[in-house]
Amino acid sequence: MNIRQLLWDAAKAGQKKAMPILSFPAAQKLGVSVETLVKSADLQAQAMEIVARETPTIASVSLMDLSVEAEAFGAKVRFTEDEVPAVIGQLVSDEDEANDLAVPALDQGRAMLCVEAVRSAKQKITDKPVLAGIIGPYSLAGRLMDVTEIMYLCFDEPETVHVVLEKATEYLIAYGQAMKDAGADGIVMAEPLAGLLNPDMAEEFSVPYVQRIIQALQDENFALIYHNCGNSVPQMLDQIYAQGAAAYHFGNAVDMGEIMKHTPADILVMGNIDPAGEFAGGTVESITEKTKALLAACGGYENFVPSSGCDIPAHAKWDNIHAFFAAVNG
């Protein structure tokens, strides 16, 4: 299925359709912990199927587990029952370690487990596209180098950061191709750490690497959706849109109405109901009100698709999820 065309159809329709970044709350319906879910291809495929079957989402998205790629490189990951896995420690701290860093094979860590989950989900879900979730290059480099330390290294040792970015990009192209070969209709690429950069730094450390991944993978029938949930997005819209993604997904740190005012009509934008504050912490009444306000501000744009601001937490309330869709669908 052509996800790009479906998204544009949904954006231009008089009655909008939504595509939140929704997968982890399916653990509740499966009766399993987050840790169990992220370690099972079969359960992940079932989770995607539940979302496709029980909601009117445009497409089903695989787990946005942004520890997978760093784990493949050898980073340590902390697993807990109820939270998304987190990378801990620092794998690369200097030029020597950056040069010694090996680009892992796809059979390292849980990468192929995630690929198999997408392959299985694609067989189970026949009426909607299936999208794979992967991390972006600068965000992956940050998990390998430590998200705070990489900011210093961008100033003090930019060459070292670029060495890691080259290797991260090579791996992400291979990983994305494996998802494509498994039958995914597209990819949601999460590059949240780039949201902490100023436009000049993003131009150096994120944009060119994202562009390479998009150019390597995107084609007429396979779409890359770029996600950035940083509050610096409004200052770097020109750089972001120059990356050439099929669509752009922004977080609730920005005013989506203002984003749309500065977005060309031929660029598709998605967002941005607060995943923690509303899907998880809100009420049916509050998320309904927020969603209607979002539609009032952005619903008139024929290049806007309603979504969550980021990945919806595992403990989000299904009543709130259904209320979001009900508000969108009128």
Short account of what is shown:
Helix content is 49%, strand content 12%. It is α/β, with parallel strands linked by helices and 330 residues long.
Element layout with pairings:
Elements: H1 3-12, H2 26-30, H3 34-38, H4 41-54, E1 60-61, H5 68-73, E2 76-78, E3 86-88, H6 95-100, H7 111-124, E4 130-135, H8 137-145, H9 149-156, H10 158-181, E5 186-190, H11 199-205, H12 207-217, E6 223-228, H13 237-241, E7 247-250, H14 256-261, E8 269-273, H15 275-280, H16 284-298, E9 304-308, H17 318-329
Parallel strand pairs: 1-4, 4-5, 5-6, 6-7, 7-8, 8-9
Antiparallel strand pairs: 2-3
Mean pLDDT across the residues is: 96
Q: How large is the radius of gyration?
A: 18 Å
The major β-sheet equals: 7 strands, parallel
Distance between the termini: 26 Å
Structural class: alpha/beta
Number of helices: 17
Please tell me about this protein's structure.
- By secondary structure, the chain is an alpha/beta fold.
- Helix content is 49%, strand content 12%.
- It has a seven-stranded parallel beta sheet, sandwiched between helices. The protein has a two-stranded antiparallel ribbon with strand order 2-3.
- Helix 4 runs parallel beside helix 7 (111-124), helix 8 (137-145) packs across helix 10 and helix 10 (158-181) packs parallel to helix 12.
